[in-house]
Write a structure and sequence with these properties.
The structure is a homooctamer. By secondary structure, chain A is mainly alpha-helical. Chain A folds into 2 domains: about 120 residues, Rossmann fold; about 40 residues, no CATH class. Chain A has 6 helices and 3 strands. Chain A has a 3-stranded parallel beta sheet with strand order 1-2-3. In chain A, α3 links the parallel β1 and β2. Chain A is globular. The first copy, chain A, starts with 6 loop residues before the first helix and ends with a helix. At the C-D interface, β3, α5 and α6 of C face β3, α5 and α6 of D.
């Protein structure tokens, strides 16, 4: 991630990777304040067996692009909404990459950080059938959660609403 | 792709995949006009051995999201700039996905279509060393093209400029 | 609605429908997390005698579009302002539908949820004279409320203001 | 419609209504240049047996709102992209209606005009089974057109592409 | 103003008019909820000797435009920032008027409400030399306030800053 | 106006003022390139009997604000759409004036230039009954033009449409 | 700066200049409320040996442009995010200057105010080798801070996270 | 500049530097396609006696930021309007730099490229009195051009207009 202040957003990525038991490493690497370390880190990743890179940054978010310039590994970008423009600046800085150097851009903020982890897992799963199965189960779990738990909560709410209305 | 009119943008994807010799199939599948075919196609991809999906669409571009809802394969989205809002609508409709269902969003338009192909290749290359090498070569070729050919053209332009200036 | 978190917005819809005594049912149906249930629900509505559908969702709000793809019943969309972009993303994702599959889009947030109910009633009222009359009365009530109660409050405010000013 | 210059957009509405054989009338009624005629027209519609109103306008598009203020009939708004801001102004002026006075807003431009007609038909069809059937058929036709004709064209294109590539 | 909720913004207008001793009247008149009263009020203003109209409204702010449609008196519009889009919707709905029906649009929010009063006074002052003089004095007062009081505060701040820095 | 290139927009202002027979003068005065002449011109206007100022400019359009800083005469601003941002930059630079220094902002481009003239006439008319009458007549003419001529054209179009349709 | 209310943003500029021991002066100078003092101050700067000007302002931020119109010294603009549009208005008003009169625009808000100081120092350092060395050291310090302190904090966080997870 | 396609915009920079007789060098250096050459070039500039850097790029324009990360020389950024978003993406990517690494951002497109040259000259002129004098003369020339030539053209236009009007 580009700055310490991105951690409250990017910890969603860690949470998901932990829950899938997939190992990772985390660094604060600024495209602008520590450019050599950032470039070197991105360049060396492939040799060290790393498979996917996730870059989260705010404002004029160049981190994902600078990392993508140094490697042919897939790079996933998370626009962080830390500026007054609410992440529109980091979204456009991350997604509008020139031909030849893609950055796979996720939604702005915490939801995007969560999805960056899921998408990284989906990439890894293209060659790991057991991880693919875990993703299929996770997806089923989400559906079940919506279909059952959430709609049960909703029914309760609607019941309370009706009772409340008739009681008042 | 969501519509026949997306073809002039999405052919950039085909061009790159052809040049890397990676097989693919192409369909017009509308999230809104042919929803069942779209869902069924997305659902069946994994069983047919497809590894990555690319969805290009304009306006309220739901295609990539609808496809991502049906599979745990990586889905790449290309916002097409066919509406009066110049693709801002398709960008936001594609990238702002809810937690759990990522779409890897590329730049708006033809450059994004080209990058969707490169990013798909980068995913495949995580388990195919020979493809990885081709991508490394492609990247070196891009660098060389900028460093040599483009700067030679520039020098020529600058020379003509100087001569033209002194001649006039 | 697409998520539990849309309920504080969408309860405005319920409040209005309750006050007009029009029966309804409520579901959490995610275009992305529970796509089959969502499609099946939308597809079966007409057969079950449902007349109008209202879909509220935030971020890349595909719900209304996905529902509209499955039915020829009128679908009303409410963009919810839950993302950092304050509903501009859900507005464009809801309103910019392709030719052939309309979504009747309302204002962003609670006001839009209220209006979704009114608009649904207006649709129903095209074939129910008594409901039409209720809507006419509701509209007269709104006018009277502005003309009388609100302007009386204003006059009081102005009077206090003047007295306050002369007293200070 | 608000102005003569909206006709090239709004004729899409007429084309669809004609093809479904549903009678309509068309007026140029400006919220700002002919306010009394506009209000009177909107007010008298219900008494004349009109069921749905469609209002297309550009710039600060007040027409749909002004019409909706005068009637409890459903009002559909089409934002026209005639200003330098490409319809973002007319979209926001049409969709962001205050609580109590909904305008069912369609996409910007010709696609929105087409959808306004479809949506009007969907409203009428809630009490006309034969029109409902026509809409179901229209929807099936769209799906078939995508699934068959468009994908056949695509296959041809792909074939030509391959042949062209091998020939060159 | 279009709604009771606009009062905290529009009271800036009243404050300035009071301070210049210029008489005024205030009404809540909704373009959408009480259209006839709004039109009638606007139409009758000129006959009652009113010289300038100020309309403040939020969301799809049609009030100023609807008032301007009914009179040839100068109409000043104040976009109120009450929606999630922070007044961008009310700004565009107010300022993008069609040819022939101008609305003199002020800044979004309280500053715009204050300026609406100043601008109304500037209009009146074109034929009232004594009011013109008061405006000239007000302008001089603003300049003096910036030049003297505010820069004195700033100097104090800078002094404290220096002392604080050396003390710490 | 701020630049020669604003003339194709601002000539709409001249056309209206000519048609009302109201005398005016025109200058190219740049807030940035000729600041002293601009300030001096604005400052001297009141003494020379000028009643209203109209300023048209594009990009970071400071002209209206700089003029308003120098005078208590009413200043009307016309944002010109000469930049890649299509006048959004000039609109915000013109309308978002700080408290105390209003600029009456019109729509972007030629329509705004036309309206600047109408609004200037409306200001002058507050103390000139004959001009007021001309404005009332102009407004009636606009209404008549919409009601009669434009709707006659429309009827013709509809007739041709029907005939064309039955002939084909 | 254009107003007292810009001080909480612009004090970042002072903090950096203080830490580099570079002398400066601070004024509140409004482009609109005290135009003559602002113009005179800008005009006289060069004669008084001032080398760089920094202008911070919000809303329709004309200050930097008005200052740049009066001098050939480099002018740096800081858009302040004080309006409902979150500084998009001040950014466009500051950056979109016409040909011939540049304003070097920084990021919106406090980060931009800090950078205005750094950029001013970079300008001064083009002819002051000792200041250049200080800037090089400052840059190294930033890199070291990211590389060491921040990543140490991050490691601690990750360790706590793991322990916390295993403890729970 | 980041790409060959930026040349039609960036040649404005060259034109101005040529006309002031200030030497320069031009390179195509892509932040993403040739990152090492770009970094190395930026890093070595100071040692080679270069005083100011100008970077023009479109889309997610990282070039200026990447260059600024490598040097303490002043870096000027020109957002190029080559994408469907008309330069809003390159503007935000260039201007919203994080604290510590400023980029002096100019207007979007050719005007910004021209201003980049002027601003570079203003930086150089802080230690070169003869260049300062040339800039003062250039500024006087711009003022004279507006005051004399442009207003003469305008007068001619107005005269033709009047004659044309009376002749018709």
């Amino acid at each position: 991630m580009g700055s310490e202040s991105d951690l409250p957003v990017m910890e969603e990525t860690l949470r998901i990777l932990d829950s899938f038991g997939v190992p990772y490493e985390v660094r604060i690497l600024s495209a602008h304040r520590s450019p050599h370390e950032t470039s070197a880190y991105a360049r060396d990743c492939m040799g060290r067996g790393i498979k996917v890179l996730i870059a989260g940054a705010g404002w004029a978010a160049h981190l994902a692009g600078v990392v993508a310039a140094e490697t042919t590994l897939p790079v996933i970008g998370v626009p962080v909404d830390s500026s007054p423009l609410k992440g529109m600046d980091s979204l456009l800085s991350t997604v509008q990459m020139p031909p030849g150097i893609p950055v796979a851009t996720m939604a702005i903020g915490r939801g995007g950080a969560l999805n960056a982890a899921i998408f990284a897992l989906q990439i890894l799963a293209t060659s790991k059938p057991d991880l693919q199965q875990k993703l299929v189960d996770y997806k089923k779990g989400m559906a079940a959660d919506v279909i059952q738990r959430k709609n049960r909560n909703l029914e309760e709410y609607l019941l309370n609403r009706k009772t409340g209305a008739s009681a008042s």
